[in-house]
Write a structure and sequence with these properties.
The structure holds two protein chains of two kinds.
Chain A lengths: L4 E3 L2 E2 L23 E3 L6 E3 L7 E4 L6 E4 L5 H20 L3 E5 L2 E5 L1 H10 L3 H29 L8 H11 L5 H16 L3 E4 L1 H17 L6 H4 L6
Parallel strand pairs in A: 1-5
Antiparallel strand pairs in A: 2-4, 3-4, 5-6, 7-8, 7-9
Helix pairs in contact in A: 1-3, 1-6, 2-3, 3-4, 5-6
Chain B lengths: L11 E3 L6 E3 L22 H21 L3 E5 L3 E4 L1 H11 L2 H30 L6 H14 L5 H12 L1 E2 L3 E5 L1 H19 L13
Antiparallel strand pairs in B: 1-2, 3-4, 3-6, 5-6
Helix pairs in contact in B: 1-3, 1-6, 2-3, 3-4, 3-6
The chains are: A alpha+beta, B alpha+beta.
């Protein structure tokens, strides 16, 4: 992949020449469509479409304003669909199997959740179930739902709600941390037991890759790519 | 290149959820015309919320480190590990490389979060214009690495589920791990409550 090129957006106007009231000259939502405000420092820019591999940084605080969406809606949908399949495999197959003098023990993600619940760590069981199952699954299903309709250029039923949910759920999905945690657990267990990695660990590894790719996508782009369905 | 103007100075604000730009309003019940979420120029009660959650996290951080997080039981021995002793054991018996990763995720990251969030909150309260760009970068760092501290919690969860060989060998979670999970969630909530725009507001200098 090509390295990122840094792009800049044009500031909306010179602060000193035209203080305040610039908004008065912009009527309605249409004319604010091409403005973008830095989420970290509140600087206002005029948006322009970015070329492949470009990332626009805020000149004031350095945060990322916008990045080129290198995957089209169809490709994004394919990616989400793949993620759903891998997610199912990751959750039904054993992650690792331990052997100790002829006995065997295996676990899945839900096995870990249930073990924590039964051993008096219900809060941890709840956190694990949310951050490793419900939030990632919700993210995949909701993103899939809006993308399915976005392929036809329309907004899915419940679009505003779905888009808000995607933004709110994103920081709480922790598949990649779980992946690293599995590796640490395997190394720790390896000292005392025979460890056989199961299909689940590969699925989680692959899911980590997919999650990394789709966390580079900004679903908010869909607001601009879709229009309200004609009633 | 001149400094771009700020939305608040231009009488605008952007929806914190969908980024739609609208006219500035003081109305606390105003909703985004596009996504329907509540509009606000700055996160509500950002500094006090972030402080409260940070202090709560710091309090829970003590039992998280003092209490053991995991019990390893076999016929001949019973071994309770705290976060730190678990890392030392991993260093000795397993893999020093992974021990460094776990040490970073479980000790360095939470401590850095306390220090950085405390520093950001104090400088914002003093309306300091000092090193704003660097502080903005620190905030983005905290947001980026915060959730990796869940690492040890997941390790205990997997081991507890796996090592279930009746009396021969058994791993159980202990209360420390619950406190640690709570610490991670509270520090994440604290960082989310903090509004980085405040770094650029009301600066005394410049």
């Amino acid at each position: 992949m090509r390295p990122f090129r840094h792009a800049t957006f044009t500031p909306i106007c010179d602060h000193r020449e035209r203080p305040v009231a610039a908004f008065d000259r912009l009527d309605g939502m249409q004319r604010t469509q091409n403005l973008i405000v830095c989420e970290h420092c509140d600087s206002v820019y005029r948006r322009r479409s970015l070329a492949r591999g470009e990332v626009a940084d805020c000149v004031v605080c350095g945060a990322v304003l916008d990045r080129h969406q290198w995957l089209g809606v169809d490709a994004q949908f394919a990616l989400i669909f793949a993620a759903l399949i891998v997610f199912v495999i990751a959750n039904v197959s054993p992650i690792v199997t331990l052997g100790l003098s002829g006995m065997k023990a295996a676990t899945t993600l839900w096995g870990a959740v249930i073990a924590m619940w039964n051993d008096g760590a219900q809060i941890v069981a709840f956190l694990s179930a949310m951050t490793l199952f419900f939030f990632p699954l919700g993210q995949i299903l909701i993103f899939g739902w809006v993308l399915w309709f976005a392929r036809k250029g329309i907004r899915a039923p419940g679009f505003p709600l779905a888009m808000s949910a995607l933004v709110r759920v994103k920081p709480w999905s922790m598949i990649e941390v779980f992946m690293l945690g599995t590796l640490v657990a395997v190394v720790k267990a390896h000292t005392y037991f025979d460890v056989v990695p199961g299909a689940g660990i590969w699925a989680f590894g692959f899911l980590t890759l997919l999650v990394t790719v789709f966390s580079s996508l900004d679903p908010r782009e869909l607001w601009d790519l879709t229009a309200e369905a004609e009633a | 290149m001149s400094t771009p103007p700020r939305a608040i100075d231009l009488g605008m604000m952007a929806c914190h959820v969908c980024r739609q730009v609208t006219a500035y309003t003081e109305d606390r019940h105003a909703r985004c015309p596009r996504c329907g979420n509540t509009l606000h120029a700055r996160k509500h009660a950002s500094v006090s919320r972030a402080w409260a959650l940070l202090v709560a996290a710091a309090i829970f951080y003590i039992p998280a480190n003092v209490f053991p997080i995991m019990r390893t039981q076999s016929i001949s021995s019973r071994d309770d590990n705290t976060i730190l002793s678990g890392i030392m054991e991993l260093w000795r018996a397993g893999s020093p490389g992974l021990a460094v990763i776990v040490f970073t995720a479980s000790i360095i990251v939470p401590v850095l979060k306390f220090l950085i969030m405390g520093f950001l909150l104090v400088t914002v309260q003093r309306s300091s214009g000092m090193v704003a760009r660097q502080r903005a970068r620190l905030y983005r760092f905290v947001e980026l690495v915060g959730y990796w501290s869940m690492l040890d919690v997941f390790v205990v969860a997997i081991l507890s589920a796996l090592v279930h060989f009746k009396i021969l060998s058994r791993v159980e979670p202990l209360p420390g791990v619950v406190y640690f999970g709570i610490v991670v969630v509270l520090t994440m909530l604290s960082a989310m409550s903090f509004d980085p725009r405040l770094i650029w507001d009301n600066r005394k200098s410049q």
